């Protein structure tokens, strides 16, 4: 017998209403789903593109229960949420993807590394930091990277320690040490795995970082690396998601070392900044793919239609207030450029306010156009900080 | 000095909240605009993907004024709206695109034909029907097509008169007669023209009609016709929009006659069913293009990334009630298929409930896939009529 879907299809609850939830909601609404969002801000980016907003904290058990009860499938757009209540709800039979058990592993970056390492996934050398005494760093060896076990994102919670002179900057939180990898490129792969076990992989991309803010600045799709390295990167990314028994879309951040080894840096249990280019450049966007994966629908084609470059639009330094966009007309006249603005009510330095994607048959031209657009487009404010 | 856009950019008011408004709103929200919609139904398709819904009739002057006052640019997703109040508002300085003067021409199909004919645009032979006596039809010549001057859409208001025997079926409304054109293919071109006068043209597509319902059933992009005919079709479409001084996106429906002539059939002053494929298949969708055009932004690239076929999902005969979707999983497992469901609360026979778009390098394969998907996907209801 054929499946019959009623209207308004499955109700999808998203914990977190930021730009990822906004783009998930837009994909889900396109397909006819009913979408609810839980966020502390009633005017969060997803608020105006979904059916209902529940205003509440991600650590408020009652609010998490409320969205679960109003939804048929629950997902999230951030990893810093309460897992205890999610586990209780899952035991009660609610569908939560990715699972709270997986989320707990992801939230603790040391545990994440341990799980991946134990499963034979290549990762940088790492060790729990049991004391903040200089000896603990020295015995691991300089240069090294200190990483907070919990709560880090967009470069926060990461400290490079080149030698004794950097020990004044160490993070005073539960953390672990990682070898300082000699990186040729930072790569990323978006992997989707559905509740039926189907797996699809997007093209391998290059991530270029803003060195000052340590935030992903630009993504180049496809990565300018050999086919062999691409195949290896994809195989590692898929294996990572399978080991974690992941359901949904995952962003797997990888290091390509100078000696051509692939190492897993970090796993994001959700659509990822490195996959925004898929909205314009692939047949199925990572956001639609996530919705298909968590609702048990067949996954869509991940085919790249044209090379693409994505660049984040970060709030300019020196401004903090309601955003202004400078240079929009000039940027939009660049052939092949698409503009996304998330609708955050306030800008602040380095805050992700939007992004652009440029499609061009020639990837080097796409990069040039992205650099030009980044120079034109500035997110400022009347309010100087 | 560079342009500066504030948040939430320009406020866009859309009169009508159907599927076209929904897709316009989704494009506008992606770019960060504030979107209001006026519709009699509070749960109209656009309602859950925009910032604010005004509930009211399209012929209610007060409601039209209310949305105008709350917006910086006004547009519409249907042509059957009151133009008198729009003209008053325009005189008061409100920005309304396309203009009410253009809309009045479009609304009266006879006037539309007269204006195009007078400007040298090729159209089928036509004549006002001054009386419903058999002699008026005979003197024009059989076979002919009687068309209502106003209110027709999706095949309504059109009557083919092959001879005296069909005169019992004539429309008893103000109408005109058109020659019965010997058609090789029905074509369409989406043309965008911005408030700055910039013009961009999408690829020429083929429209395949459901003969029973006389509704566009399938769109094939690009059309399988010679380059010469494509160039001529585009030139006629662009000239049509320029003659009308159109601002926004327009769907120009064309006949390709058996003797390879291009004739303009009809103009839609808004994004058009024949351009839905642009969401997945072109760099800039017709909906984003409409938003760019009416807000004075530079137009985006209309490049076709891959051949595509769009098929409408119409309500099945025999059902009228809350919709059910049959065969969704089976259809979504077809490689390259994207699914759109508009979220209308009730299905009825031949109502446009959603559409699918299939991308495939090989257009004939895309057509095969679309035919297969149409057989799998059925919009029914628990309620039989």
Automatic annotation (TrEMBL), chains A, B:
<dbReference type="InterPro" id="IPR011761">
    <property type="entry name" value="ATP-grasp"/>
</dbReference>
<comment type="subunit">
    <text>Homodimer.</text>
</comment>
<dbReference type="GO" id="GO:0006189">
    <property type="term" value="P:'de novo' IMP biosynthetic process"/>
</dbReference>
<dbReference type="GO" id="GO:0046872">
    <property type="term" value="F:metal ion binding"/>
</dbReference>
<comment type="function">
    <text>Catalyzes the ATP-dependent conversion of 5-aminoimidazole ribonucleotide (AIR) and HCO(3)(-) to N5-carboxyaminoimidazole ribonucleotide (N5-CAIR).</text>
</comment>
<keyword id="KW-0547">Nucleotide-binding</keyword>
<dbReference type="InterPro" id="IPR040686">
    <property type="entry name" value="PurK_C"/>
</dbReference>
<dbReference type="Pfam" id="PF17769">
    <property type="entry name" value="PurK_C"/>
</dbReference>
<keyword id="KW-0456">Lyase</keyword>
<keyword id="KW-0436">Ligase</keyword>
<dbReference type="InterPro" id="IPR013815">
    <property type="entry name" value="ATP_grasp_subdomain_1"/>
</dbReference>
<dbReference type="GO" id="GO:0034028">
    <property type="term" value="F:5-(carboxyamino)imidazole ribonucleotide synthase activity"/>
</dbReference>
<keyword id="KW-0658">Purine biosynthesis</keyword>
<feature type="binding site">
    <location>
        <position position="147"/>
    </location>
    <ligand>
        <name>ATP</name>
    </ligand>
</feature>
<feature type="binding site">
    <location>
        <begin position="178"/>
        <end position="181"/>
    </location>
    <ligand>
        <name>ATP</name>
    </ligand>
</feature>
<comment type="function">
    <text>Catalyzes the ATP-dependent conversion of 5-aminoimidazole ribonucleotide (AIR) and HCO(3)- to N5-carboxyaminoimidazole ribonucleotide (N5-CAIR).</text>
</comment>
<dbReference type="GO" id="GO:0005829">
    <property type="term" value="C:cytosol"/>
</dbReference>
<dbReference type="GO" id="GO:0005524">
    <property type="term" value="F:ATP binding"/>
</dbReference>
<dbReference type="InterPro" id="IPR003135">
    <property type="entry name" value="ATP-grasp_carboxylate-amine"/>
</dbReference>
<comment type="pathway">
    <text>Purine metabolism; IMP biosynthesis via de novo pathway; 5-amino-1-(5-phospho-D-ribosyl)imidazole-4-carboxylate from 5-amino-1-(5-phospho-D-ribosyl)imidazole (N5-CAIR route): step 1/2.</text>
</comment>
<feature type="binding site">
    <location>
        <begin position="265"/>
        <end position="266"/>
    </location>
    <ligand>
        <name>ATP</name>
    </ligand>
</feature>
<dbReference type="InterPro" id="IPR011054">
    <property type="entry name" value="Rudment_hybrid_motif"/>
</dbReference>
<dbReference type="InterPro" id="IPR005875">
    <property type="entry name" value="PurK"/>
</dbReference>
<dbReference type="Pfam" id="PF02222">
    <property type="entry name" value="ATP-grasp"/>
</dbReference>
<dbReference type="GO" id="GO:0004638">
    <property type="term" value="F:phosphoribosylaminoimidazole carboxylase activity"/>
</dbReference>
<keyword id="KW-0210">Decarboxylase</keyword>
<dbReference type="Pfam" id="PF22660">
    <property type="entry name" value="RS_preATP-grasp-like"/>
</dbReference>
<feature type="binding site">
    <location>
        <position position="186"/>
    </location>
    <ligand>
        <name>ATP</name>
    </ligand>
</feature>
<dbReference type="InterPro" id="IPR016185">
    <property type="entry name" value="PreATP-grasp_dom_sf"/>
</dbReference>
<dbReference type="InterPro" id="IPR054350">
    <property type="entry name" value="PurT/PurK_preATP-grasp"/>
</dbReference>
<comment type="similarity">
    <text>Belongs to the PurK/PurT family.</text>
</comment>
<keyword id="KW-0067">ATP-binding</keyword>
<protein>
    <recommendedName>
        <fullName>N5-carboxyaminoimidazole ribonucleotide synthase</fullName>
        <ecNumber>6.3.4.18</ecNumber>
    </recommendedName>
</protein>
<feature type="binding site">
    <location>
        <position position="109"/>
    </location>
    <ligand>
        <name>ATP</name>
    </ligand>
</feature>
<feature type="domain" description="ATP-grasp">
    <location>
        <begin position="113"/>
        <end position="295"/>
    </location>
</feature>
């Amino acid at each position: 017998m054929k499946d019959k879907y009623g209207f308004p299809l499955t109700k999808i609850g998203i914990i977190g209403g930021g730009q990822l939830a906004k783009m998930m909601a837009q994909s889900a609404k396109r397909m006819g789903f009913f979408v609810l969002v839980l966020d502390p801000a009633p005017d969060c980016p997803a608020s105006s593109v979904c059916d209902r907003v529940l205003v509440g904290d991600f650590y408020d058990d009652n609010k998490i229960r409320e969205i679960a009860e109003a939804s048929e499938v629950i997902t999230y757009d951030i990893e810093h949420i309460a897992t205890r209540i999610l586990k209780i709800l899952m035991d009660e039979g609610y569908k939560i993807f990715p699972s709270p058990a997986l989320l707990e592993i992801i939230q603790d970056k040391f545990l994440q590394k341990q799980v991946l390492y134990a499963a034979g996934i290549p990762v940088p050398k790492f060790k729990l930091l049991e004391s903040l005494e200089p000896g603990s760093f020295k015995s691991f060896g300089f240069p090294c990277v200190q990483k907070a076990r919990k709560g880090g994102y967009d470069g926060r919670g990461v400290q490079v320690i080149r030698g004794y002179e950097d020990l004044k900057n160490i993070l005073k939180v539960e953390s672990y040490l990682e070898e300082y990898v000699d990186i040729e490129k930072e790569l990323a792969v978006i992997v989707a795995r559905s509740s039926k076990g189907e797996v699809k992989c997007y093209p391998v991309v290059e991530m270029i970082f803003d060195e000052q803010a340590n935030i992903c600045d630009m993504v180049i799709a496809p990565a300018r690396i050999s086919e062999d390295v691409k195949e290896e990167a994809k195989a590692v990314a898929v294996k990572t998601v399978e080991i974690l028994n992941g359901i949904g879309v995952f962003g797997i951040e990888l290091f390509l070392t100078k000696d051509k080894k692939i190492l897993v840096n970090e796993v994001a249990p959700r659509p990822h900044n490195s996959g925004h280019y898929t909205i314009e450049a692939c047949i199925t966007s990572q956001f639609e793919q996530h919705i298909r994966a968590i609702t048990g629908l067949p996954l869509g084609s991940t085919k790249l239609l044209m090379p693409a470059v994505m660049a984040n639009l970060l709030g300019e330094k020196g401004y903090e207030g309601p955003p202004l966009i400078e240079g929009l007309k000039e940027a939009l006249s660049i052939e092949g450029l698409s503009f996304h603005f998330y609708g955050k009510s306030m800008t602040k330095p380095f805050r992700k306010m939007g992004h652009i994607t440029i499609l061009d048959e020639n990837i080097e031209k796409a990069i040039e156009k992205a650099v030009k657009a980044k120079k034109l487009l500035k997110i400022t404010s009347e309010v100087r900080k």
